[in-house]
Amino acid sequence: MANITGKEMLEMIISRQSERSYYDREIEKDKLERILEAGRMSPSACNSQPWKFIVVNEPVLKNKIAVAASARELGFNIFVDQAPVLLVVVREKGKVISRVGGTLKDKDYSLIDIGIAVENICLQSVAEGLGTCIIGWFNERKVKELLGVPESKRAELIITLGYPSNPYRPKRRKNAEEVISYNGY
Ligand SMILES: Cc1cc2nc3c(=O)[nH]c(=O)nc-3n(C[C@H](O)[C@H](O)[C@H](O)COP(=O)(O)O)c2cc1C
Fold it and tell me: How many angstroms is it from 134 CA to the middle of ligand 1?
């Protein structure tokens, strides 16, 4: 059982923010391994674990991925190359039971599973003093090609990882009354 209070946990969740600026500083191996472990230990429908986390830390390859994830002319994701590590999350097929259940219930459990694993990675990164940004906008075909991801699989998200260099921003969120209700919609 973790030695962390409820208040501390919430503080940590709130202190996570999308970091879009990083120091030129390497990530310690033990930190990176714990961050990956946080992803690997995530829950998933039928314990299907429909993910593969590709660590990209080789500078030349990493910069090619960063180019595929940014559009200079639009100002999209131009910070990605600053992060010393990129984690590319590939969606795997998952167990048959999860896929059948998903079809019957008209729900893609594997995408939900990936979202959970990605947030676990982001929270563990906060605990390690690191910052992340989840990147959903990128040239998937190019990223798959660079990493040798099979044609049949989807590269769903990229997570930038590094020591953040920007200050904390207050959270902008919908009011609690708008998104939480008790005992009915
Ligand atoms: C699925 C997903 C995709 C995202 N894609 C991008 C992206 O391509 N580029 C980016 O700068 N931020 C991206 N974000 C970050 C969101 O913009 C950010 O989480 C949101 O504005 C809330 O801000 P915060 O993370 O700082 O609390 C993405 C977040 C999620 C969950």
Answer: 5
